[in-house]
Structures are given as structure tokens and as C-alpha cells.
Amino acid sequence: MRLHTILLGACSVVAFTGAASAETLTIATVNNGDMIRMQKLTDDFTAQHPDIDLEWVTLEENVLRQRVTTDIATNSGQYDVLTIGNYEVPIWAKQNWLLAIDDLPADYDAADLLPAIAGGLSVDDTLYAAPFYGESAMVMYRTDLAEKAGVSIPSKPKWVDIKKAAAAMTDKDNGIYGICLRGKAGWGENMAFLGAMSNSYGARWFDMDWKPQFDTPEWKATLTDYLELMNNYGPPGASSNGFNENLALFQQGKCGMWIDATVAASFVTDPDESKVADNVGFALFPEKGDIGNRGNWLWSWNLAIPASTQKADAAKAFVAWATSKQYTDLVAKQDGWRAAPPGTRTSLYKNADYEKAAPFAEMTLESINAVDTKKPSVQEIPYTGAQFVSIPEFQGIGTAVGQQFSSALAGNVSADQALSNAQQLTSREMMKAGYPK
To answer: Any alpha helices (H) in 260-393, and if so which ranges?
Structure first.
């Protein structure tokens, strides 16, 4: 939620044989594990829809955001289905850039969608994207390393617990780092984590007059403690690490703790992919202790249909398939219930097979339900959002601020200078955008 302009798997095409008159849907998606799995399972869709071919454009997260934002804002119609987040959906829907996700098959059961997730994808009670998976954030940690180091991580930890455990589990001589956190610049990369962390420290992006708040003690404490954790107990080169890079480090046994998206739980506990699958514990996102706010975040990756598409019916058929209960069953049959897309449907968390296979299920649901996007900070705020601010300008501002903080992590600027730069650039952009409005 990246500085890189590298196209990963650019225009990765999956071609299917169909009728001569078959429509081809071009689908832009992100290069994470759940989306790659979806591509591998689309034989099921094309068997049901032999008149629809699928072409995939698979992009690194920051690049995906950049490409689809440009495409939809210019009405170029390059894509028929977009993978976008709950940040973009309400903003783009109000611009009439997205088609409503309505007239779905009766067995789709839209009422089964988790209210917290569906609410963030709706405008005036109309759904404008269908959630593929939903997430909050939590602590994932090596139970074996914690035991060896003689530390315990409470189910509801404070940041002081995290710091103590990180110090105890760090063994740099053997390539083990006490904590791995996002450092790669981007509004949905390092700023997703730091935005959530700042909420737990009592910080806010803007005051009620839309004045940036990076010159406050709360933001200084957030960034200072983050840098201390990463510089003392984090892996080298962390300023280049985002979700995928930290996932790989954790699965390889390099991280004592990783605080990130709940969706990662199924990957770090996958014995086929993770060397530490049998030794992973979970805890809620940390709180500061004297604030009474756990911060956290709420995110969903969703499939949406741009208003510029000429293939709306085919696109809607694909979106309905990929976000249905039947797709969840297909994943479970293929890869086991642990791999089912999490965080979107109430029924999944009432499924005994899923609860048995996914030791992280209860913690994931508790984390999602605990998020209050209308009041993410203990202070008064003029915006909604948890780890982001629900205004169009945030995409650019958040990435620019992320660049400053990533630079501080790389040792190129001090924490104070990064905060000062963030304050200045955000003030300038908000003034240019005409805030307060």
C-alpha cells in the first residue's frame, strides 16, 4: 500500500482456447500469493464461461496503483477488471469511475460479506467492488525463538513487550533478526505500517483544520521508536523491504517477529513454503500502553470494474466467480482450508473446517472487527481511514512522506529532518489542493 517502477510479470498472459467470438478480459492485479493462486485456478471459470478469455497484467504493488490510477483517471479503458483497495473504491465511485457491483447471482450471498469490509466498498449502500480478501494487522512471531530467548509475547502486547522480545531474539551472527517491519516507501507500504503505529502512539495525520501533524511529539515518538527497533534489531537493507520481502525473510526463518497484514498468516504457516510453519504464534497489533488505542489497520484487495470497460457483463461474471463462496471452496479443495481467502465472509469464520485448519482465524477476525475507521486516533480528526486518509490527495502525499521515512531508515537523513520534510511537503500539497475546504 513503492518507489520501484519495475514491472513484475508484466503482461503475464494466461491464454485459453475458446470460441472465435470470445471476449478477452484484461485483468490488472497485484503480485501477491493469493492473486497468483487465483490465476492458477481460473480453468474453473473458463470451463463455465468458454466464451471469455483472460489476460493478466500482474504488477508489483506500487506499480499497480500507479498504472490503474492513471488508466481510470484518463478513461483509457486499458483494463476490464481492476484490483484496487478500499482506499480507492469510495473515492473513485463518487467520481463515477466504477460500475456498481449489482445484479449478482442469487447464490453469491452479498449479505454474507463482513460488514466492516462491505461498508468500506459501498457508497449510498451500493457495492462498487467485491472483496477478494480482507485484512487487518497483527504480530506474527517465532514461538521457538521466543522460548529460547526466555521471553513471552502477550496476546495483547504493548510496544515495550515488542522491543524487549526483539532484543532478546536478535542473533545477528546467525542471521536472525528480532523484528522485520516494512521499510519500502509507499503510502500502502511503509506508511501502512507507520500510519497504524502512529495511531497507537496517539498521533494523527491532520488536525481539525487539516494542518499536518508531523511536528508533534506523538509522530516524533512513533518514528524514533520505529527507527530504533529497525536499526538495532532489524535486517540489513530494510528500507527496500515491503510485504513480499518480509514474508520471504520470515518464511526463511530470518525474523523473530513480523508485524504486518493478517493475510500473511496462511503463508507463514504453510509447511510447503515456510521453514518455520510449525513454530508461529500470533498476537494483536501492539498498543503504546498509556494511549488506550491499538491503532491497527483495515485493508481489502478488491475486484472492481472500470466504467470505461466495453465488456461489463463478462467482467461482472469474473468478479462474481473470483469473490464467491464457491471460489473459497475451490481453494480449500485445491490447497486446503488454511489457504482460503480470509477476512471477507462471515460464513468462513463459522466454518469448523476452516477454524481447525487456520489457527490464526480467531485473531484475524478479532483484529478486523476491532478497527474503527471513523476514529482511528484518540484525537479528533477530520477524516476517515485507519492506516490511510480517505482523501484523493493522500496517494501522492502518503508516498512522499513514505520516501522521507524510508530515507531516514536508510540513514540518509535524521528522524527530525524526515519529520520536518514531511511536515513541509504535506503542508504545501494540502495548501495547493485548497484545504481546508
So the answer is: 265-268, 312-322, 325-335, 352-357, 361-369
Residue 329 has pLDDT above 80, yes or no: yes
Domain boundary assignment for the chain: 23-135+299-358, 137-296+375-432
Query: What is the spatial distance between Cα 25 and Cα 42, in angstroms, rounded to a whole number?
Result: 12
pLDDT for position 2: 36
pLDDT at 46: 96
DSSP state of 342: P
**Domain 137-296+375-432 part of CATH 3.40.50.2000:** no
What angle in degrees, to the nearest 10, is found between the helix axes of 61-73 and 394-409? 160
Distances (CA, A) of 404 to 158, 181, 219, 289, 413: 26, 16, 13, 27, 8
Helix crossing, 217-233 with 394-409: angle to 10°? 50
Residue 149's alpha-carbon distances to 19, 168, 171, in angstroms, are 62, 6, 10
Q: Average the pLDDT over 144-151 and give the result.
A: 97
Residue 151 has pLDDT above 50, yes or no: yes
Q: β-strands 130-135, 299-304: how paired?
A: antiparallel
Superfamily of domain 23-135+299-358: Periplasmic binding protein-like II (3.40.190.10)
Q: Do the domains spanning 23-135+299-358 and 137-296+375-432 agree at the CATH topology level?
A: yes
pLDDT at 4: 36
Q: How many helices (H) and strands (E) does the chain have?
A: 17, 11
Q: Which of 313, 351, 317 is nearest to 331 (CA)?
A: 351
3-state secondary structure of 327: helix
CA distances from 141 to 115, 170, 173, 253, 255 (A): 29, 12, 20, 10, 8
25 and 58 Cβ atoms separated by less than 8 Å: no
In this prediction, residue 1 carries a pLDDT of 43
Q: SS3 for 433?
A: coil
Query: Pairing mode, if any, of strands 23-30 and 52-59?
Result: parallel
Q: Are 305 and 98 in contact (CB under 8 A)?
A: yes
Instruction: Decide if pLDDT at 135 tops 90.
Output: yes
Give pLDDT, residue 410: 98
Average pLDDT over residues 100-127: 93
Q: In terms of Cα–Cα distance, which of 134, 287, 133, 292 is closest to 196?
A: 287
Integer Cα distance of 294 and 291 in angstroms = 8
Mean pLDDT score across all residues of the chain: 93
C-alpha cell recorded at residue 207 = 488536525
